Automatic annotation (TrEMBL):
Gene3D superfamilies, A to Z: 2.40.50.100, P-loop containing nucleotide triphosphate hydrolases
InterPro entries assigned to the protein according to its UniProt record, in alphabetical order: AAA+_ATPase, ABC_transporter-like_ATP-bd, ABC_transporter-like_CS, Mo/tungstate-bd_C_term_dom, ModC_ABC_ATP-bd, Molybdenum_import_ModC, Mop_domain, P-loop_NTPase
Protein name: Sulfate/thiosulfate import ATP-binding protein CysA
One example GO MF annotation: ABC-type transporter activity
Pfam families: ABC_tran (PF00005), TOBE (PF03459)
Keywords: ATP-binding, Cell inner membrane, Cell membrane, Hydrolase, Membrane, Molybdenum, Nucleotide-binding, Translocase, Transport
Taxonomic lineage from the root: Bacteria, Pseudomonadati, Pseudomonadota, Alphaproteobacteria, Rhodobacterales
Cellular component, GO annotation: membrane
EC number of the protein: 3.6.3.25
Residues in Mop domain copies: 291-357
Location of the ABC transporter domain: 2-233
Length: 364
């Protein structure tokens, strides 16, 4: 299943002019606050009417200005997950979950209630009211309600923004399961590089109302010109397999020919992982390092050097683990005699890889 968007919409002094097509999977709309992300997703939902263009999900047209077609929101068969859960306070969790199914014929109910309850671990909550739920529990219920509407497309507008870090870590694996197991396309809005790295199959970069790039997360996050939230969010997205759990609280990953150690991941040995390493957390050495506390050493060759306007430089390395990006000073690059083809070693502290930067499933 795919979806295509080609729309123009003006609101006051702001103009959205967005064109992109995305394959099945989880498509992240990535951009700064004010870039038009929520305007875009609300246009797809039918909450805003574009001035021109068309929106299509698989073979179903939701909007076509030329044909004067604009399906009402209730007829678009979309599941919408908001920044806040927006649950009905007077209804139990069970009745909140079933609310999205009330207008569906039996033949349209492609998702089983029990399956969603199991996937999102909602069984113990079914008789409770929203006021007796934690923030993470409320958001899980909101996700379940959207999925039980048997949607053609799931829309998620910064669904983790209102949650603290423990609750975000609770919710992220559920989005990974939805992406990998349900086969429903997801349009997911965020300004978080960590969420892009963990969840995205495709990234649409939005800046000042315009799409500036469409690509894989590893490609987008490695390019400082394309990361709209600033150079500190530039980094690498790597894939590895969990090969061992160590007694000292570290998990060992195998990425290409490189063993990497990260804070313990509560996954089974053999699980395929994807994770992000921020460029500013990478140190470079032109010889094999000795006498360091850092456990992760990734050998590679310099693929490119991009000097910034300030003192920094972005060094891209080709390694067996994948493309690794380091942000160092231009002075350091000169002192190390770095040039394209130079053999170097990327050094990363285990604790520099945060829990929200490590996800499971889906090859990249």
């Amino acid at each position: 299943m795919t979806f295509d968007v080609d729309i123009g919409l003006r609101q006051g002094n702001f103009t959205l002019d967005a064109q992109f097509a995305a394959p099945a999977g989880l498509t992240v709309v990535f951009g700064r606050s004010g870039s038009g992300k929520t305007t875009l997703i609300n246009a797809v939902a039918g909450l805003l009417q574009p001035d021109r263009g068309r929106i299509q999900v698989n073979d179903v047209l939701l909007f076509d200005a030329g044909a004067k077609l604009n399906l009402a929101t209730r007829k678009r068969r979309l599941g919408y997950i908001f920044q806040d859960s927006r649950l009905f306070p007077h209804l139990t969790v069970r009745r909140n979950l079933l609310y999205g199914r009330r207008t569906l014929w039996a033949a349209e109910q492609t998702v089983r209630f029990d399956d969603i309850v199991e996937m999102l671990a909602l069984g113990p909550l079914l008789s409770r009211h929203p006021s007796h739920l934690s923030g993470g529990e409320r958001q899980r219920v909101a996700i379940g309600r959207a999925l039980l509407a048997s949607p053609r497309l799931v829309l998620a507008d910064e669904p983790l923004t209102s949650l603290d870090m423990p609750r975000k870590l609770e919710i992220l694996p559920y989005f990974e399961r939805i992406r990998d197991e349900l086969g429903v396309p997801i349009l997911y809005v965020t300004h978080s590089a960590a969420e892009v790295a963990r969840l995205a199959t495709t990234v649409v970069v939005l800046d000042k109302g315009r799409v500036t790039q469409i690509g894989a997360p590893a490609e987008v996050l490695a390019d400082p010109n394309m990361v709209p939230t600033g150079v500190r969010n530039v980094g690498s997205v790597l894939q590895a397999r969990l090969v061992k759990q160590h007694a000292d609280g570290l998990s060992e990953l195998q990425a290409g020919e490189v063993a990497l150690f990260v804070p313990r991941i509560e996954k089974s040995v053999g699980t395929l992982m994807r994770f992000r390493i921020a460029a500013h957390d990478v140190i470079l050495s032109n010889q094999p390092p000795v006498g360091l506390s850092a456990l992760n050493v990734i050998p590679g060759e310099v693929a490119s050097i991009r000097a910034g306007e300030g003192p920094g430089a972005l060094i891209s390395l080709t390694t067996s683990a994948g493309l690794v990006v380091a942000r160092v000073t231009q002075r350091s690059a000169i002192r190390l005699n770095l040039a394209v083809g130079t053999r170097v070693y990327a050094i990363v502290k285990s604790v520099a890889i945060a829990p929200d930067d490590i996800g499971g499933g889906l090859e990249i």
